[in-house]
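Margin note from the TA: students keep mixing up input and output lines. Inputs are the sequences; the output is the structure of the whole complex. Example:
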Amino acid sequence: MAQKLPYKSLVQLDRNASAALYVQVCNAFIALITKGILQPSDMLPSSRTLAELIGVNRNTIKLAYEELVSQGWAEAVERKGIFVNSKLPTAASRPLPDAHLGPHEAFVWHNRFRNALPSKDLQKAGLAIDDGFPDVRLAPIDHLMREYRSLSRKFYGKNFLRYGSSAGSERLRISITNYLSNTRGLTVSPENVLITKGSQMGIYLAAHLLLGAGDTIATGISNYLLADETFREAGGNILRIPVDACGMDIDYLEKALATTSIKAVYIIPHHHLPTTVTLSSERRLKLLDLAKTHRFAIIEDDYDFDFHYDNKPYLPLASIDHNQNVIYIGSISKTFAPALRIGFMVGSTEFVRAAASLRELIDRQGDTLMEEAFSVMFDNGEVDRHFRKSLKIYKERRDLFCDILASDFEEEISFNVPEGGLGIWTTFSPDINLHKMSHEAGRKGLYIDDGDFYKNESYATNALRMGFASLNEAEILKALKTLKEVLPNAR
Amino acid sequence: MAQKLPYKSLVQLDRNASAALYVQVCNAFIALITKGILQPSDMLPSSRTLAELIGVNRNTIKLAYEELVSQGWAEAVERKGIFVNSKLPTAASRPLPDAHLGPHEAFVWHNRFRNALPSKDLQKAGLAIDDGFPDVRLAPIDHLMREYRSLSRKFYGKNFLRYGSSAGSERLRISITNYLSNTRGLTVSPENVLITKGSQMGIYLAAHLLLGAGDTIATGISNYLLADETFREAGGNILRIPVDACGMDIDYLEKALATTSIKAVYIIPHHHLPTTVTLSSERRLKLLDLAKTHRFAIIEDDYDFDFHYDNKPYLPLASIDHNQNVIYIGSISKTFAPALRIGFMVGSTEFVRAAASLRELIDRQGDTLMEEAFSVMFDNGEVDRHFRKSLKIYKERRDLFCDILASDFEEEISFNVPEGGLGIWTTFSPDINLHKMSHEAGRKGLYIDDGDFYKNESYATNALRMGFASLNEAEILKALKTLKEVLPNAR
């Protein structure tokens, strides 16, 4: 009989919780009903009995019972009492798990991400030789906060908190067109620009619009891992193209096109990831001609454009393409701070409109207040000032980092000084075990990668990228000193 | 001969642009080369000649030529001059488009979003009867800004600008578990929580993990349009289930399961969108039992939980499910401000880990600084205070709005007073043309929907949702007065 249940232990109340006591009692009874401990038509204890048992005011119990009745879990029968709703389906007594949710679920699905590498979380890393990330301490976060505050206080600013366009803030799209024109000679209209959450969302959108199941996309034999995974997730097959000191081997691509039809090429012409090489002028023109002839798209990932230390940067493919084959992707996150997710994607009006429709299904829209704030900072020159300032600092850091690598790691590490970007591609002598190195460095308080992120099914080398930009002079000295100490234990 | 080209008009300089003059000259020549106007081995004019022609200092031209040579576009032949690189592929002279990018692109792709409804942009709407959105003027944006500022000034706060976990801020995941436990009796661990960009991203992630091409998902015959589109985009087929005053017809679903195998049910048990009905207790238990027997997932979209005016809200399915069949989705954007994109998804550890892997491909991670700021506001009670305050205000607005609908629109509109949520499902008499009404209202400065958003291939009615929450008393009076004036012209 339900009345003999040990309610004192079954109905546990937490007097410090923010939920009212009567709600806690009500929820406890719903749990007893849904677990099958109380069955349809079982009588509940009288409010007086229960109130005494669990030590609360009788009115609390009455309120709880009223709530159970109004929600349909219980029914009041006049002069008899309160009963579990007789119309509820009879529930077999269910086992009560210790924690509510365990590691596994009961429904059928195919987890194709079971073997995915966990994403790198550097927020608690301390001293870290990262993949080539910016120094967040240089980001003009005070200026950003000032614009946030200013916008959020204005009457019109409040409107930016409402639903907006899934293509992004109109004002930022205009600012970006000006910025692209001034820095890259790329003349487009705001309708050709979609504001994204970092360059990754640009890759994702382009991949899902271009690729269907079984479609082929060409990428470098070494390539940015998250791009490859995105293309596979979209259903694509990957055609690997060799990469040498002049970038992707476009002659190889041309030969492959004789037998293989492709939907797109994904390329980082400016500084190939991971090896940092730049695509030569000849290959640029040849790639554009192939795209025109074979009618494939070029996804040009140019997240690195703003960091170039010696020459002026090459113009992007998008700036010299006159046939609308290039989808151009850039990032502001990479130049400001990774956790401020802002980027852009440039394409034909139709392609951008389709990308905005897909983006609406993903997260509806971006954070308009942040987008507006960045627009102000583009327009008042703050973005430009930040680029110039950090470029100067990063060049000094690159030089210092490379000098030490050359002098102190001559036997262990070979590398080329990168013309731009925030990382150095370092190849280790074969007797050094990068997993061991990463582990040993971690024990001494230094985060450094184990190189797995740069390998894929057709590319393996004893190498990794070393980011120099996020470390100041003292930190570079300390990090490389630690690395040097660790290497003998990594053989 | 290249030397006879009209360089004065071909090399146009903008002295107000932020790009240096030599960069502009360099880019102009790259454009001439890539368009085929200058061919491989063509000689460039001497720096003296060109400097005079276009009226700049000769050193500017020299710098530009050096840049062209260093990038591989040109080559210097001693004692002869500067030539276009002879190794460049010969480019056929290409037509120069007026604007760089037009509406269409040259590559082959299938635009499955061509007929997508454009997303609603309410940021410039002025007076609007929306779909049921919060009043952004009530959002405690000053508090949010204060937490932002405070975090961004702290040494440890800067670390939140670095790359973090794609599952979201650990601290916010803990705050959300406490909030779910206190408000919904839902006891989970932070490993069961993924921070999303609003509830839409939860729907997107769940759909793409659960559905493959040709898989079936059951939804209400009337349903949230963006959810349906997301399921189709993921490759799913939609099985429509009738919805009555007690919510989705679970008996109908049970019969359908005899012949159709499904991967998931998408349901908004609390206030069905668009019609605002609540799923009854009997149907809740029956649905959970069916999920257990047939091993399908329940995607429970509970974006509306925090707004309930009469009873306490029903516990979510997730709180009474003891078989791990429910993926629970919620939103903070809907309670604070749509453009602040924060939501959460709750599931088994394995499902959440896979969702985090997929999310990494989409946008890498969320805005950690915002996530941390919201965590502070959950923990110090600010979120709770905002819920209570806005709930009181929204109840008053609902009552006023419904009173006027009942008294002034008796002949034109039928509706039920919603128990919760921010919108009223209003059915118009058949002689009123909603497109005409929307158009006529727009002419009088009132935004109101035309009802298309609520129709689908198997559901059409002369109805729409009217949001009461985003309008204050004076605005409600004004909006409904305008609507009343407009209706005679909409027949």
